[in-house]
Amino acid sequence: MSLLEVRGLRVHYGPIQALHGIDLVVEEGEIVTLIGANGAGKTTTLRAISRLVPPSGGTIRFAGVDLTQLPPHQVVALGVSHVPEGRGIFANLTVLENLLLATYGRRDRARVHQDLERVFALFPRLGERKGQLAGTLSGGEQQMLAVGRALMTRSRLMLLDEPSMGLAPVLVEEIFATLAAINREGTTLLLVEQNAHQALKLAHRGYVLETGRIQTAGPAAAL
What we know:
The chain is an alpha/beta fold. The chain has helices at 42-49, 72-78, 95-101, 112-122, 124-128, 139-151, 169-184, 196-202; strands spanning 4-13, 16-26, 31-35, 57-62, 65-66, 80-83, 157-161, 188-192, 205-210, 213-219. The protein is built from eight helices and ten strands. A six-stranded mixed β-sheet has the order 6-7-8-3-9-10, with helices on both faces. A four-stranded antiparallel β-sheet has the order 2-1-4-5, with helices on one face.
């Protein structure tokens, strides 16, 4: 059984069909990337998996559980985190408060401090700025915070939407190196990225989306 299995996924925005019955799978421990032009349906795919938009057809199964009708908070509780396009941090809260917000549904409170230490080890700048308002961070630091916040949910699958957007090349390299480290530690990644070269360097497999349909798929090196 695949960790994530999407079959025949369709999404409409009113009369406009954004996804036309796409199929994809993500195996435990993989990094899989979705690439394609603006408007191809990459973000919609992630938002449908995390149930931020309702599918109009098809099924989404995670670890054998049907997510198709679940509310987003239950999807998170099952082990799926989402780092959205634009980061979605809470600008008027501190770095530490943003990270702790992600633990609201957890029952293992004793391990929260351990996870904070893990995030600060991966992103030392967040540790240095944990009392700073998140809105005053640089773009790269805000992206680190968005990824760190997702890690605080202890998810098995992390959905990442354009993590390199708006970042200087040196920061892009840093973010992608950290994503590789997160994967090595056991988190499966499904990555949406316009920087196809970087995404395919990082990923094991990829899918190419075009106008809501998967046009081709295969090993990252072949793509």
